[in-house]
Amino acid sequence: YKIYITMRFYDRTNEIAELQRKNKLSFNDHSRMTVVTGRRRIGKTSLIMRSIEDSPTVYLFVGRKNEATLCAEFIPVIAQSLETFVANEFRTFR
């Protein structure tokens, strides 16, 4: 599925470029995880989604849930995004 973002970004060119650079590194070198932090409602998710809109990337939102619940929620998202089978046996990130 595609997510369309209508929010306008002002002076976020450097941030988007840095996120895209990190994303390319994960495809060319080793897998990486990028964490974006900040105050509530300032556009962190929109910034991330804008930076990966043309990239085969899985976006997983980590809420305040237990590990088994997060794994259960992530399995179908990963399977659909990557168009591959993911076993339902995962209950931990380790």
Automatic annotation (TrEMBL):
Keyword Isomerase in annotation: no
Keyword ATP-binding: yes
Keywords from the named record: ATP-binding, Nucleotide-binding
Single GO MF descriptor: ATP binding
Top-level lineage group: Bacteria
InterPro entries xrefs: P-loop_NTPase (IPR027417)
Signal peptide extent: none
Database matches in PANTHER family: ATPASE
Protein name per Swiss-Prot or TrEMBL: ATP-binding protein
